[in-house]
Amino acid sequence: MPGKTNKDGRADDGCNYMTPEELAEFGKNVAPVAFDSSDVKNKILNVKYGKLPEHLLDIYLPESGDGPFPLVIYVHGGGWRMGSKTESFMGGIIGLLDHGYAIISVDYRLVPRTTYPEFIFDVKTAVRWARAHASDYGFDPDRFAMVGDSAGGHITLTMGYTAGHPEYAGEAYGWPGVSDGLQAICSMYGLSTLEDVSTKFYRQSGVARMRREAPGADSLYSGVFCTKDANLLRLISPISFVTKDIPPTLLLHGVKDGVVPYQQSTILADKIRKVCGESKVELVLYDDRNHASPEFNTKSNSDVLAAFFDKWL
Q1: Rounded Cα–Cα distance for residues 249 and 275 (Å)
Q2: Is the pTM here over 0.85, yes or no?
């Protein structure tokens, strides 16, 4: 029963958990994957977009066409603590080049080097840089999209839903006055709410979670978002910023996700439908996928993204 404690001192919360064997296999899949860009002919690497050492991005351009190209900005995952523009799920993004999209993969500051909302400021600065330099690289400044996985999905949702909010702009890092707006976004298994709802969701679904929290353990969120206050976490959650003006949103999530429960995407989809109507959101649930399953890192994933972005860009 929830509230009791197991022999290992960890709370019994009524949820199912991965076996050691399942956890070991899962660990192989969830770690950031090194991206080899040697096969990409048109690229410009390690471009500085802001004032800080971490403010670097990589640009990939289609092999044919003169542009201007619609641009997709990729924000890597890694729990806000690890990963990079080249240690990521770029394998599931790079196929967009074949659909005529330019791609940017962006670095941002990680915890504990920084905390929320500074990494949001970083990515906002990258968007402003790209729009300010659109003519230099062949981007269409009126057709900007963003996709992120896991923590990058959370960042992407926050980016899309706080466009034009000066308190989220971080203009001190560069390119003040340039729009940070996005015309379409995709979150792959990202958090829509920072409230403590995972236990409830996993009890409902029976999906195996990654691990139990030890009694009194410090929340991941408190280290990233500097608060345990439920009201504050609710206020800064992407789902709280949903208005009729948000960009069209694609949500990709595995039903067997043991890190970010798939309901994080279903509750957001429900909220968007209620506020904006059916056309503003597309939800794709994969019955056989876990968090960061390898299938998200394939060309077929790029095809799913392209089908959605083609509608709006």
Answers
A1: 13
A2: yes
Q: Is 140 exposed, middle or buried (0-12, 13-18, 19+ CB in 10 A)?
A: middle
Spatial contact of 95 and 169, defined as CB atoms under 8 Å apart? no
In the predicted model, is pLDDT for residue 233 greater than 60?
A: yes
Cα–Cα distance between 228 and 220 in angstroms, integer? 10
Contact 17, 210 (CB under 8 A): yes
In residues, how long is the chain? Answer: 313
H or E, element range at 274: helix 263-276
CA distance 311 to 313: 6
The single residue listed with the structure tokens 């203009």 is 171
215 Cβ contact list (under 8 Å, min separation 6): 5, 9, 10, 11
Q: Within 13 A of 258's CA, how many CA atoms are on the CB side?
A: 22
- Mark 289-301 as b/e (b = at least 16 C-beta within 10 Å): bbbbbeebbeeeb
Does residue 283 have a pLDDT over 80? Answer: yes
Stretch among 3-7, 150-154, 193-197 having the lowest mean pLDDT:
3-7
Q: Are 88 and 76 in contact (CB under 8 A)?
A: yes
From the list 196, 311, 190, the residue with the least C-alpha distance to 257 is: 190
Which residues make beta-bridge pairs with 12?
A: 4
Residue 204 CA to residue 213 CA, distance in Å, equals 18
Q: Greatest CA span in the chain, whole angstroms?
A: 64
Q: Please choose, from the candidates 57, 220, 236, 257, the residue with its C-alpha nearest in 3D space to the C-alpha of residue 157.
A: 236
* Per-residue tokens: 195: 């409230």
Nearest to 182 by CA among 202, 159, 213, 200: 159
